[in-house]
Amino acid sequence: MNVRQMQYAILLSKTGSFSQAAQELSISQPAFSKQILTLEEELGVKLFERGSTPVRVTAAGAYFVREAEGLLYKENQLHRSMEKFRSGEAGQLVIGITPFRSSYMLSGVLRKLRKRFPHIQIKLHEAGSEALRKGAAEGKFDFAIVNLPVDDSVLDVRPLEPDKLVLAIPENLLSILDGSEIDFNSCGDLPFVVVGQGQEMRQLFDSLCARAGFVPNVVAEVVGLTTAWAVVRSGIAATILPWQFVEQGYDEHKIRVVSIKDALYFRRPAVVTKRGQYINEAAAYAIELLTGSNGRL
After folding, report:
1. 82-131 residue pLDDT tens
2. What is the pLDDT of residue 142?
3. Residue 90, C-beta contacts closer than 8 angstroms, at least 6 positions apart
């Protein structure tokens, strides 16, 4: 039994298809099937039932795949823990983060990281929070920044400062504004630009509208908050944003940013890592910077 055979068995259990697994590995199906058969013969047990579609994992196969994943993860962690001894602090730091947060949260952190670890390669893996939670639980990142809640039975969690939500309004729509704070109940007639369904910011927006008792006038739906901000700048519509985004130099003369009279609505980000995962010195330093000052460096 070797690492390749374990990887093949894990892939087959996920795809349920010899042909699909072979295609993903860019090898022939007979070559892939032979590796699985050789593994089963060596172990003396059948790992997969070949007469079904998709291919079914036997009880022995399910146990093997679970243990093999654990062994491969530990092997990967061992290699990473030896990284600094092999390369004199050189290596790769992989950070999972949403594209929106990377636009304002990491600039100071990355600058200090490069100064302290000039030979390390920093890789930002940008994805949605759900994909980042899953990747962190699988140990794919040195750390990830996601919104709470998370499954703390598999993740170590270090909370960050909450993302307080604010309302960004073009000057030409300011007739409802009186002061630096607004009751969202008075926003029923505003045109809004929102992000797509399923995104956490959209869920918070929908909750605000439901609590205020109105169906919002959505004039534009966009992919991300950076685009939503551009629509606000055009004077077409208002939107809700995290205050941290606005305070990082996105001030505009033709836009007013006001607090919403409801402390219930905020996002709570956190730095997460897989429980028991080795944290190298560069990752530990970056986490310290983030948790100590939320990246505003």
Report:
1. 766 554 456 789 999 988 788 778 888 999 998 988 888 899 999 888 89
2. 94
3. 83, 119, 120
Of 259, 255, 245, nearest to 195 by C-alpha is: 245
DSSP state of 160: -
Distances (CA, A) of 205 to 27, 188, 191: 48, 12, 13
Are 141 and 135 in contact, with CB atoms under 8 Å apart?
A: yes
Phi then psi for residue 17, to 5 deg, are -150, 125
Q: How far is CA 191 from CA 24, 187, 217, in A?
A: 46, 9, 5
Which secondary structure element, helix H or strand E, spans residue 144, and what is its range?
strand 143-147
Mean pLDDT of 127-141: 91
- Pair 267, 204: CB distance under 8 Å: yes
- CA atoms 241, 247, 248, 254: torsion sign: positive
Q: Residues 16-72: pLDDT tens digits?
A: 999 999 998 899 999 999 999 999 999 999 999 988 889 999 999 999 999 999 999
Give the span between the Cα atoms of 233 and 203, in whole angstroms. 23
Interatomic CA distance for residues 160 and 62, integer angstroms = 38
C-alpha 98/C-alpha 219 separation (Å) is 25
- DSSP letter string, 209-261: HHHHT---EEEEEESSHHHHHHHHHTTS-BEEEEHHHHHTT---TTEEEEEES
pTM of structure: 0.59
Lookup result for tokens 């941290």: 244
